[in-house]
Amino acid sequence: MLEIKNVSKSYTLNQRLHGKQALQSVDLSIGPGEIVGLFGENGAGKTTLMKCILGFLRYDGEILLDGAPITCNNIERLSFATSEHSFFPNLTAEAHRQFYKEHFPRFIDKRFYGLMEFFELPLHKLLHSFSTGQKNQFEVILALCQGADYILMDEPFAGNDVFNREDFYKVLLGILEPNETVILSTHLIEEVSNFISRAVLIRQGQIVGDVLACDLDESGISLMDYIKQTYHYSADRVSRALNDITGGEG
Prior knowledge:
The protein is an alpha/beta fold. It has helices spanning about 45-55, 95-105, 110-120, 130-145, 160-175, 190, 215-220, 225-230, 235-245, and strands at about 1-10, 20-30, 35-40, 60-65, 70, 80, 150-155, 180-185, 200-205, 205-210. Strand 7, helix 5 (about 160-175) and strand 8 (about 180-185) form a beta-alpha-beta unit. The radius of gyration is 20 Å and the shape is globular. The mean pLDDT is about 90.
């Protein structure tokens, strides 16, 4: 169980200005086997929350993994895929596999080679020669093959075409073990609506929605409609903006 208890995070802009409150008293528990979609506007706090979980940022509050703080003793149970690219650009994919296998004893060779073949990625080319989309694919592969129990993904599919993304969701559902948990932050809401088991909504650093996909199905509400309702989305905002800009002309 991943437990986030009363977690807050602020960024200091400078000595004269007040800091930006990125997270405000976030409480969230995520159990094994869940596929959680983390949704929110730009700047809502999604990436900050993930980086706090991983220990990349200091924060107030408590984050526990099966009741224990996340330290060097259990950090290998977490993996992270991000479009920021955290691999070694001057190593090949195969060299990365060997490096990861040395540092993560639970590394899954069979999954690695299967996903490399699925994405049609070369094993013996240097990573800096990969396209942006290929780099993002490889980042996801490393996160999925590390052997982690909790796999965090922050906008991992940037630069990938819709067919690759759609096929990948199907493959991912087929390879995940029952105890593996995925926390996926993305703006591609409609694409992942049939993939996730739970949706968590964050806005201005606070959790404003948390719902199981099966409950949405039973109520007949789509994920997009649930998000719009929770965010009090105004259906006429476009027409009002155009009216303000054009003065009602045309």
